[in-house]
Amino acid sequence: MHELSFPKSPYTSLVVLALLAAVPAVGQSHTGWPTNGWKSSTPEAQGIDASVLDELDQEFASGKHGYIDGMLVIRNGYIVYEKSYTQDYDQLFKERDQTRGDEVSPSESLGRAAP
Question: What is the pTM of this model?
C-alpha cells in the first residue's frame, strides 16, 4: 500500500484534487463539459489509478487529514470519484465550547457574536 503524506491543511485536498483534474489524460479530449450535468466515468477510463483514490478515501474517512466533508475528482469533464464523510459538528463544537465554559451547538450559536 502506498503511504500518502500530506500537510494537515484544509486546502491540501483542494490542491491535490485540482492537480488531478488539471492534467489531461494522454490522447483524450475533454468534450464532456460544459453541459447541464456531469457525466460519470471510472477513474481507470480517465487515466487515474483508483487504488490511490481509495487509499486517500480511507485516510479522509479515518480523520488523518482533519475534518473533511467530501472528495470529488473530476477528470476530462467526468466525475470519476465522489465520496462524502459525516462529521458530527454539533458534538465537536459542543466539546470545544465546553472547554471555554459554554454549552452551545453551532445551530444554537447562529447570530451569536464570536468571543
Answer: 0.55
